[in-house]
Design a protein that fits this description.
This is ATP-dependent helicase. The chain is mostly helical. It is built from four helices and no strands. The protein has one domain. The longest helix has 18 residues.
Length: 129
Amino acid sequence: MALTAALKAQIAAWYKALQEQIPDFIPRAPQRQMIADVAKTLAGEEGRHLAIEAPTGVGKTLSYLIPGIAIAREEQKTLVVSTANVALQDQIFSKDLPLLRKIIPDLRFTAAFWPRALRVSAKPGGAGQ
């Protein structure tokens, strides 16, 4: 899929609208770069894998959700986000996605929270059978 000018404009417009929703928002070059890198990766322009490391509070989650949602819509696909911890799940579901819904009014999302005690066993008759 090509990262078209229209898709780039949509991502930029959502990022600008996001800035207006967050008091004292400070646009950061690394955040804009991350949005661009995620968009290019999801569009298939720069390989299939992307690793990003940044301190807490930089805006990583919103920086992958914005291009992820835009590209998923363009391709008429579902965006799935998986996290390693419950705190990030809660942040995404109760803070980030409702915030994005303010700038993307028809945004729909659901969540599946798995209990930490869930265990899967490959043994016959084990958990998950």
